[in-house]
């Protein structure tokens, strides 16, 4: 178990999609219902949540789900954003709905939005919690590097739970050569092929790191274009022209890569969620049994889930 400092409240924020799709595509998780319909994503995610609660025994958890594919505000800014994704088929869509439902059944606070992504939900929850109390540590369960920009203190870290690998501010800086808070600027320059963010053509990680080390932000880079030709990097003389010719694209790319950390829309429940709202609640046994019936789990998987959940009901 990861050690906690005295009086420091650890808040665990889970990037649900990472673990849902890990289960969906895993060759080690095979589960179908009594009619032969695939349940691998739902079964694997349910196991993950129960095992996490059993192992860590957390007090505060927020589970962020993605519900904004092709409907989010970033798609309004750029229709190419995440255009490499495919919408879920009917079966997977049903499982995704079940993954959201099981979070509540297990006593966890779960959030989803058609406008904001899971990253934005995590960013906003983290921002709310920091305003409420400085004595908190954000422990973000994800494999996604983009969430590194939320690591604001030495006590925060990203946690790849399956690989049991944690990365703090120092680790991110060593790995990428930029401070975590500079990640939006960094991706604004180099782009991100995973999310179809273009960045500035001709600028890769090496040049981006030099630029950010010298000028600190994308805004300051553009305020000092005349100084770029003097930098000790290959192609420095032509770099200013590339930046100048792609200014709009650079700032669009940065905006797409920037995690939203404040949402005032009253229809978005996570926008005003407090630390107390993330406090873990008692598992609802009757609802859990109803959940197993609703998704028609086979006897073997049903009994396995009942067996492992008994350990957290007893806690």
Describe this structure in words.
The protein is an alpha/beta fold and 315 residues long. It folds into two domains: 9-176 and 260-302, Rossmann fold (3-Layer(aba) Sandwich), CATH 3.40.50.1010; 180-257, 5' to 3' exonuclease, C-terminal subdomain (DNA polymerase, domain 1, Orthogonal Bundle). The chain is 45% helix and 9% strand. The protein has helices at 16-25, 40-56, 73-77, 90-105, 118-132, 169-176, 183-190, 205-215, 218-223, 236-245, 247-257, 285-294, 299-313; strands at residues 9-15, 60-64, 109-111, 136-141, 157-160, 165-167. The chain has a six-stranded mixed β-sheet, sandwiched between helices. A hairpin with a 4-residue loop joins strand 5 (157-160) and strand 6 (165-167). Helix 2 (40-56) runs parallel beside helix 13. The two termini are 16 Å apart. The mean pLDDT is 94.
Total number of distinct structural domains: 2
Counting DSSP E segments of at least 2 residues, the number of strands comes to 6
Give the helix proportion (percent range): 40-55%
**What's the CATH class of the largest domain, please?**
Alpha Beta
Low-confidence stretches: none
Order of strands across the widest beta sheet?
Answer: 3-2-1-4-5-6
* Biggest sheet statistics: 6 strands, mixed
Strand content: 5-15%
- Count the helices. How many? 13
H/E element string?
EHHEHHEHEEEHHHHHHHH
CATH topology of the largest domain: Rossmann fold
CATH superfamily of the largest domain: 5'-nuclease
Radius of gyration using CA atoms only = 21 Å
- Give the mean pLDDT: 94
């Amino acid at each position: 178990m990861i050690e906690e400092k005295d009086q420091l409240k650890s808040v665990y924020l889970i990037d649900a999609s990472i673990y849902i799709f890990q289960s969906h595509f895993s060759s080690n998780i095979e589960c179908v219902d009594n009619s032969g319909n695939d349940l691998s994503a739902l079964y694997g995610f349910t196991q993950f949540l129960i095992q996490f609660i059993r192992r860590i025994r957390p007090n505060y958890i927020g589970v962020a789900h993605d519900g904004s594919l092709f409907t989010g505000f970033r798609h309004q800014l750029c229709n190419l954003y995440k255009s490499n994704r495919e919408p879920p088929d009917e079966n997977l869509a049903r499982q995704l709905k079940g993954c959201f439902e099981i979070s509540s059944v297990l006593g966890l606070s779960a959030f989803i939005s058609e406008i904001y992504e899971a990253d934005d939900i995590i960013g906003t929850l983290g921002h709310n919690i920091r305003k409420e109390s400085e004595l908190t540590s954000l422990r973000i369960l994800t494999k996604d590097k983009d969430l590194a920009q939320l690591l604001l203190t030495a006590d925060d870290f990203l946690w790849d739970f399956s690989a049991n690998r944690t990365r703090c501010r120092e680790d991110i800086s060593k790995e990428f050569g930029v401070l975590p808070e500079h990640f939006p600027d960094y991706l604004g320059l180099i782009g991100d092929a995973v999310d179809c963010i273009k960045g500035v053509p001709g600028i890769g990680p090496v040049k981006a790191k030099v630029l950010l080390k010298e000028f600190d932000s994308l805004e300051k880079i553009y305020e000092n274009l005349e100084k770029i030709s003097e930098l000790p990097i290959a192609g420095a003389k032509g770099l200013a022209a590339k930046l100048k010719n792609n200014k709009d694209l650079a700032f669009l790319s940065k905006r797409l890569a920037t995690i939203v950390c404040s949402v005032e829309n009253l229809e978005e429940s996570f926008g005003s969620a407090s630390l107390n709202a993330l406090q873990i609640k008692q598992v609802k046994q009757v609802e859990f049994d109803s959940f197993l019936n609703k998704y028609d789990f086979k006897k073997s998987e049903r009994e396995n889930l009942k067996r492992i959940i008994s350990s957290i009901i007893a806690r």
